[in-house]
Design brief:
Structural class: alpha+beta
Number of domains: 1
Number of helices: 3
Strand order of the largest sheet: 2-3-1-4
Helix content: 25-40%
Strand content: 25-35%
CATH class: Alpha Beta
CATH topology: Alpha-Beta Plaits
Oligomer: single chain
Largest sheet: 4 strands, antiparallel
Number of strands: 4
Length: 94
């Protein structure tokens, strides 16, 4: 499994809610529009496919930022503490 930061900027509130719910199926929220996802190659394709069907390609944007294990473990925060990511925290819906 690989780790990704999934961040999005969605223009319409209805699409925004659908994108957020979809991302919740594959990872856990770090910020309002940022999720940390541990995904197999198949799950990455499923997530992209589901989001492709939701977003407006002319107005919205979803970023998939791959993180190596060392980078994922090195995430720091100011303010609220960062919870360690763990494969047990990820819910995969097929």
């Amino acid at each position: 499994m690989d780790t990704y930061l999934v961040a999005y900027d969605i223009c319409h509130p209805k699409r925004l809610r659908k994108v957020a719910r979809t991302c919740e199926d594959f990872g856990f929220r770090r910020q309002y529009s940022v999720f940390l996802c541990r995904l197999s190659t198949t799950d990455l394709v499923r997530l992209k496919s589901r989001l492709y069907d939701i977003i407006n390609l002319q107005e919205d944007q979803v970023l998939f930022i791959p993180l190596c294990n060392r980078c994922a473990e090195g995430i720091e925060a100011l303010g609220r503490p960062v919870e360690k990511h763990d494969a047990k925290d990820v819910v995969i819906v097929t």
